[in-house]
Amino acid sequence: MLFLPGLCLVVMTLAVLQTMVIPIVGTIGSQLEVSPSAAGWVLTANLLAAVVATPVIGRLADLHGKRPVLLGVLLLVLVGSLIAATTSSLAFLIFGRILQGVSYALFPVALALLRDEMPQEKLVGALAILSGTLGVGGGFGLVLTGLLTADGADYHRVFWLTAAFIVVAITFAWFGVPSRARTRTGTVDWLGAVLFAFALVLLFLALTQGHSWGWVSVPTLGCALTGVVVLAGWWVFENKTAAPLVAPRMLTHGPLLATNIATLFVGIGMFVNFLACSYFVQTSSEAAGYGFSADVLSASVVYLLPGTAVGVITSTCSGRLIRRFGPRKVLVAGANIGIVGFVFLVFFHDTTWQVILASSIVNVFVSLALAALPNLLMAEVSAADTGVANSVNSIVRTVGTSIASALLTTMLAAYTITGTSIPRESVYTVAFVAGALACGIVVVAGFAIRLTPVGSVSESASGRRSDASRFTDECVDNRVYGQAKRPKTSGSGEPARD
């Protein structure tokens, strides 16, 4: 009874942790009396920890059991939250945010748990609800931040709230997630993990620090080029390893590649909506000639909360839509809805109701897309590869959100009204156009996704799979896409087993 609500609460906690700090980076800098670039490491360190930890934790969950790994991650995140809530030192705050960054691994582990434990007839709807919670939680985190930090209140409140969230999530996970005996053997490809993490850290440093370092500066270009070289070396190494952390062919397989491309641009569209709308409505209308002079509280409650509510409703309906039409059609339809929302924002953003309506429309896209993507992903990988495949997909979405954040921040700082530090209105117009283009790419990627016989990618990438595992995956595939295939059987009529 507590299983699905508990996992939803875990994912909600992750989403809240991702977005709650974004509006208060400036507040943290002023209250700790540090520079904006130094305060920015509160975000950067969190992302770096996420890209390092997520694939390794996904693999550990596949090998050693998802429940103990899930609880262990939650405990680490709780420690990080308590450190952030009690310290007034930037160094310790960054350390706490590093521990919180491990929370990004919670989403792929939760998805893998659903695949293991949820009855087959309820799996699609459960996946949709869990995934939709991710988008809803992101908006919810921004709203909570506005409520907690109104009128310049102490930023520590935000981290105390995250600690409370995590305590509740641990309680639900402890009593709601069943324990399974370890059934798989194997080891973690630690060298591959180190190479992959090092490459991603370098690339993320270039992406997140390019604005403060300078996009063509030696540190930025050095990190980017070295990251590309290390990533290429990792690719060669993984192709020669018998048990790789991430099988390269799992990444290049057509449907998985298209799904990850779609995920990248869903992340971009989601954060363009969150950040651009939040910054836009907080712009002083008297000084800029546009915007609504909203404070953080008003921006959260008046402008973002309605979209969050719409996202909740959409998430509850998405499972039924996926069962009826299939995840690919839902993804494409959702992306088209996102195009409508962003195009509306391009031309109509002069009144409050216009911004609220358009942002809510984009939230429909985000909720539908986040619900459809895991179903598409799980139709292409074996149960044994679910954790690591979803971990890579989560990293891809994080890259998308980071790209949106970095580019928007750069544009807002670079193109300002003469004699002021206020961004030009055209910057927001370009951002909304970029959001529409991101949705358009999701549409193209959705049409490029073609279902293949389940197991083809996993068998070629990870070795032979058991017929029992293949039978489980075929059940998922048949139900989602309405196919009439029958699983292979043994002579007794039962699913064939090794």
Describe what you observe in this structure:
It is a multi-pass membrane protein. This is MFS transporter. The chain crosses the membrane at residues 7-26, 38-57, 69-86, 92-114, 126-146, 158-176, 188-207, 213-237, 257-281, 301-318, 330-349, 355-373, 394-415, 427-449. Residues 478-498 are annotated as: Disordered. It is found in: Cell membrane. The chain is mainly α. The chain has two domains: 3-177 and 245-462, Growth Hormone, Chain: A (Up-down Bundle), CATH 1.20.1250.20; 192-244. Helix content is 78%, strand content 0%. α4 packs parallel to α7. The longest helix is centred in the middle third of the chain and has 30 residues, at 296-325.
Indicate how many domains the architecture comprises: 2
* CATH level 3 topology of the largest domain: Growth Hormone, Chain: A
Arithmetic mean of pLDDT? 81
Structure annotation, total helices: 21
**Helix/strand/pairing class, anyone?**
mainly alpha
List keywords for this structure.
mainly alpha, disordered C terminus, single chain, 498 residues, Growth Hormone, Chain: A, 2 domains, MFS_dom, 21 helices
In terms of topology, how is this protein built?
Blueprint: H1 3-19, H2 25-32, H3 36-39, H4 41-64, H5 66-86, H6 90-101, H7 106-117, H8 120-148, H9 156-176, H10 190-213, H11 218-240, H12 248-252, H13 254-282, H14 285-288, H15 296-325, H16 327-347, H17 352-378, H18 386-414, H19 425-448, H20 456-462, H21 467-481
Helix pairs in contact: 1-7, 1-8, 1-9, 4-5, 4-6, 4-7, 4-10, 4-18, 5-6, 5-7, 5-9, 7-8, 7-18, 8-15, 8-17, 8-21, 10-11, 10-18, 13-15, 13-17, 13-18, 13-19, 15-16, 15-17, 16-17, 16-19
Keywords: Cell membrane, Membrane, Transmembrane, Transmembrane helix, Transport
Transmembrane segments: 7-26, 38-57, 69-86, 92-114, 126-146, 158-176, 188-207, 213-237, 257-281, 301-318, 330-349, 355-373, 394-415, 427-449
Region (Disordered): 478-498
